[in-house]
Amino acid sequence: MKTRFETCKLHDCRDAFVMTLEELAETDNKVVAVCNDSVGSTKLGDFKSKFPERLINVGIAEQNMVGVGAGLANGGKIPFVCGAAPFLTGRALEQIKADVAYSEANVKLVGVSAGLAYGELGATHHSIEDFAWIRALPNIPVIAPADRIETIAVIKWAKDYDGPCFLRLSRVGVPDLLPAKHIFKLGKANRLREGENVTIISNGVLTHRTMIAADILASRGISCRVVNMACVRPLDAKEILAAASETGAILTCEEHTTFGGLGSAIAEVVVDNHPVPMKRLGVPGVFAPTGSANFLLDEFGMSPESIANSAQILMRRKE
Amino acid sequence: MLPFELRKIANTIRKRDLLAVYEAGAGHIGGEMSVIDLLTTLYFHTMSVFPDEPNHPNRDRFILSKGHTALALYIILSEKGFIPKEEISTFLQPFSKLNGHPNRVKVAGVETNTGPLGHGLPIAVGMALAAKLNGDSWRTFVITGDGEMQEGSNWEAIMAAAQFKLDNLTLIIDHNRLQQGDRVADTNNLAPFAPKLEAFGWDVEEIDGHDMQQICTALSPEKISPNKPKCIVAHTNKGQGISFMSDNVSWHHRVPNKEQYLKGMAELERAVL
Ligand SMILES: Cc1ncc(C[n+]2csc(CCOP(=O)(O)OP(=O)(O)O)c2C)c(N)n1
Ligand SMILES: [Mg+2]
Fold first, then answer.
1. What is the CATH number of the domain that holds B166?
2. For the whole model, what pTM was predicted?
3. Which atom, in ligand 1's list, is nearest to the CA of A91?
4. In terms of CA atoms, which chain A residue is nearest residue B24?
5. pLDDT tens-digit profile of B104-149?
6. Beta strands A224-228 and A142-143, pairing class
7. Distance A111 CA to ligand 2 centre (A)
8. ipTM of this complex
9. What residues in chain B have their Cβ under 8 A from chain A's Cβ atoms?
10. Domains in chain A with CATH codes
11. Per the count of CB atoms within 10 A, which of A40, A285, B15, B231 is most buried?
12. Cis before residue B192, ω within 30 degrees of 0?
């Protein structure tokens, strides 16, 4: 039997991103987009037609792109600096550190096709270190929305937020998961499902799989709480500690290496405040083999079935 | 090997490339078609390579810096005997060694992993420098895309190569005038390349990158200027050999449907070599 989250319509969050960006640009001419020969891959074609002068394509030059973004912010613009996540973050990391985070420049970094989205293209194109890299920097929120509703809310929030942020978008299709009227609050997680026996915390494309896993667990008589935690930094420590004390076990799932991402960040809070059994799912510190994003997620133990099994195994470690 | 023989090999490689992209449902076919004549000449005419001993210390070194056109390199390596020809049909399949960008750990004959643009030339500078320090006579070749030259790392390497007088290094720019989303001229125009490279102290030659005779001549050791790194600006067409792909930006990474596949294949079959 298929659960309700397996049968619903899937959306590419890039569409929600560009639609929202166009809306914001209509009403505020400070909004500009900066990209690296990525008009197609970031779906900025319509933005370019509507606001040709406000689409700044610097060519294949990510370090320049982020620096230019910082300069635009200095001149009063609200730049959304968009590119494939691996190159935006990996190539321009020092620009992100010095010019954006350290300088507190009002730059909105938007890494698209993040995580394993570029599957078959290989590990150079996988962006599964970006949480760790950027989370290590002060001043810059790291946010991975789970569906198009949250994407729209985050983009609107980012425009009004006075400071830098890193938004991490996928291209893997996901259904609507958050309530339609969702309003994004920085550092605030969303409990998508109540539960008592165990909590699964995830973000990005993993929240979809987590919701299916919770249905599977329910069919096995297990009450699983599901928390969508878009903000890897700042973390919602209150929600994490509630999960620890009320459900006694926390499983984390992310489209990221298990070295330094969402699971690591949550473990830091748990260890410091309220140790309970935890298990972190993700890419286990290897360069992934060839395969599509969904294939690789399954391969690394993050099919809904495997997530449910991991939750059950974890529960056995509770006192 | 003579130019007409090289043209035949290049045609075989183009056909295999088209089939593999069609079957895999992905690939960067435009840039593959533009680079195949250059790759064929390097591997079947100019370079000393040892398929039975891929890491032979005296091999000439090659880096495909525009790593998104890996498939063309894989086919060349299979035709040379570095990897089995049958392996090409695994391109992009789960657990294949042939993912979308070349990987030296998985594929014999690949020197370094590329994919992010602007990495090949700095590594090539290091290789050429090592040969100089060793007193070795092997040469280093690297191919970049023209859009790729927008990456600043290339220009840092261009300065270094001239400073270190690396006349054992050859950079070939696959100048097909197109990048991913647009024409190079309409994005961040770098053309003309020759005067820029000359100003940095390089010896530069401009050729037709689909004329095997011109490619052979430009790559020959007699054409090296002592103490200067060499840049060949190869004027090419993205999608070369298939009329509806040629010079058309939409074919950067598009996949032909059945009709387009058959049409493209028929054109390659009919090509006058
Ligand atoms: C650092 C980096 N930024 C962006 C990309 C995405 N990308 C892949 S191919 C390409 C265009 C390359 O154009 P060009 O160098 O002219 O190659 P060709 O025309 O030969 O395909 C881009 C932007 C990348 N691979 N690496
Ligand atoms: Mg090009």
1. 3.40.50.970
2. 0.95
3. 1
4. A120
5. 999 999 999 999 999 999 999 999 999 999 999 999 999 999 999 9
6. unpaired
7. 24
8. 0.93
9. 26, 67-68, 92-101, 103, 113-118, 147-148, 150-152, 179-182, 187-188
10. 4-168 (3.40.50.970), 190-318 (3.40.50.920)
11. B231
12. yes
Ligand 1 and B147: CB distance under 6 A: yes
> Domain tally for chain B?
1
- Nearest by Cα to A247 from A272, A219, A227, A271: A227
**B179-230 pLDDT, tens per residue?**
999 999 999 999 999 999 999 999 999 999 999 999 999 999 999 999 999 9
Residue showing tokens 């030659």: B205
- Of A172, A174, A100, A168, the closest CA to residue A137 belongs to A100
Structural domain harbouring B189: 3-269
Q: Find out whether A41 and B68 touch, Cβ atoms under 8 Å.
A: no
Task: Confirm or reject contact between A290 and chain B (CB < 8 A).
Answer: yes
- The torsion angles phi and psi of B25, rounded to 5 degrees, stand at 75, 25
Write down the residue that tokens 């020759």 correspond to: B194
Work out the minimum CA distance from A129 to partner chain B, whole angstroms: 15
Q: For chain B, what percent of residues have pLDDT higher than 90?
A: 99
Answer whether B116 sits within 8 Å of A124, measured CB to CB: yes
Buried b (16+ CB within 10 A) or exposed e, A46-61: ebbeebeebbbbbbbb
- Given B94, B115, B150, which is nearest A59 (Cβ)? B150
Q: Which two tokens stand for residue A187?
A: 């550092």
Burial of residue A75, with CB atoms counted within 10 A of its CB: 0-12 exposed, 13-18 middle, 19 or more buried: exposed
Q: Secondary structure of chain A: what % helix, strand, coil (to 5)? A: 45, 20, 35
- Is the distance from CB of B260 to CB of B244 less than 8 angstroms? yes
Q: Are residues A237 and A273 in contact, defined by beta-carbon separation less than 8 angstroms?
A: yes
Segments in A28-61 forming alpha helices (H)? 45-50
Give tens-digit pLDDT for B138-166.
Answer: 999 999 999 999 999 999 999 999 999 99
